[in-house]
Description:
By secondary structure, chain A is mainly α. Chain A is built from 14 helices and two strands, in the order H-H-E-E-H-H-H-H-H-H-H-H-H-H-H-H. The two termini of chain A are 26 Å apart. Chain B contains 14 helices and no strands. Chain B is mainly alpha-helical.
Amino acid sequence: MSERKLSPVLPPPPLIPREPVRRSIFHALFYKDSICAWIFIAPAVIGFAVFYLVPCIRAVYISLTDWNLLRPAKFVGFSNYSRLWNDGQFWNAMRVTVFYVLYNIPIQTVVGLLLAALLDRVGRSVFLRSVILAPYLIANVIAAILWFWMLDPLLGFINALVQTMGFQRISFFSSQQLALPTIAAVNIWRHMGFVALLFYTGMQAIPRSLYEAARIEGAGPWQSFWNITLPLLRPTLVFVLVTSIIGSFQIFDTIAVTTLGGPVNSTRSIVWYIYESSFEFYRMGYASAMSCVLFLGLTVVTVVQMRILRSGQSELG
Amino acid sequence: MKSIDPSPRPPVARWLGYAVLALFALISLGPIWIAVKTALSDSTTLFSGASSFLPRDPTLFNLQRVLGFVNPADPRLARMSYGKIDFFRALINSVIFTLLAVLPQIAFSAMAAYAFARLQFRGRRLIFFLFLCATMIPGIVLFIPNFILIKDLGWLNTFQGMAAPYALMTPFAVFFLRQMFLSTPRELEECARIDGASYVSIFFRIVLPFHRSALATLTIIASLSAWNDFFWPFLVGRSESVRVMAVAINAFRQQQAGGTPDWSGLMACTVLGIVPIFILLLLFGRKVVESFQYAGPK
């Protein structure tokens, strides 16, 4: 039944006796779709306009100005964008971020798939699921400080183990080569359980009869994973990849707690660089220009991913 | 014909599966246990006990001192060269921030979600589409103009400034609740309308009670993300009187960046920041897990 039919303005069904329609303003406030709807969405629309829509437009405007918050903003056209093109630090930040995503996403996705398949096939207890979800429920800052302590070169638990096994202690966060992979590892630790849980939910929707049929045909566990689970999981896989890549490009919290962009720019990610430019050096225009480029870049990455992975279609039909 | 084996895997593979799952459980919880161990250790035993799984001479002193429950004249405090950590204030601030950000957010998002799910009005599709697009915007794009707005309002270092962007709506909350409200049985709402109920009373008497479980799910997700939030509170709420748990932990860590950090104190803070989450898991484990499990790809 369509929603229009429920509107009280239309004549009531003849067999049901009801009082005559009152047409006061008060009545309209509570009964008329359009007026009532605006009352319902007013707070959310105001919140959206003030904290999402206007800021989004304002960010684009600020990116066309030179502004340090002290003097009035000066319109400079696209000069922030041309400066960005020639800024080695910006390209370094882009490179660092892309490497971070490349360390983070493949391992996180593969580990998540493995864990999900194990949960799906051998252990389905809620207890086990809450244990592997636990790291995701912890704040980024806490996960970062926890691993900063575990990996401390002098007193950390991991380094104590490394030494017991007869190796040199490793300064994970202060090595130019290791800092970025270490930060990626911390975030893989925090996210793997959550990613696994999403995959697990997707796997639950796959009809068991398909596995039965495959087994009768003589397929092993690997074959049924490759030929049944993975293709049928594609919608979930696309969702997880798209959202986790968007999140991964915006790595900030872990860097803010541990390396602050160092050593020697090796962990200066794009969001960290934007943060420094805006909130430490107060170059609001330049920082906004970089944030707009990041937004544009992420949109392109997402659209391309959707195209490649054909997210809309599922083999289950 | 061979009969179908009820257990899908040969036993060896099953045990191997259990072993790998146990390993992942250990990887997940191990670091958290090391934090607990460190928080319960005397700070002088950190070097000698670095590789042990249990605290040497377990003590609650670190937890007590970061909460400010230790007499300032206590001789054990005098032995420590670290700055004072006042984490009690930070925990209270986190509770205030979480309540301010979550409760109005859910109320207003539910109202909007109901309108999007059931009411006819001009611009419904356009507004909903814009809300959806907003989930794609990277946080940093909005943080710069929002910071300037909060600064111009004179709301820096206030709870209202920290909670404002979350309090009226979040696109996720509206989207999630709309999906849920679309599944309200039509008959329930129609009966109420025939009885002359207004949209307002249908919303309060039928829709909200019917979706108690979805509202609980959203409350869990939104509260955890507010409790764990860092970037935005870090930008607008750094003063000691308002800073939340994550901002405070980061501040303690940066203060001590030069020398040897006060690890036992920092880990005591860490444990206190995790405790509410573990209480939630112990009380409502299944509900929490299912919240995150099913709120994802919808």
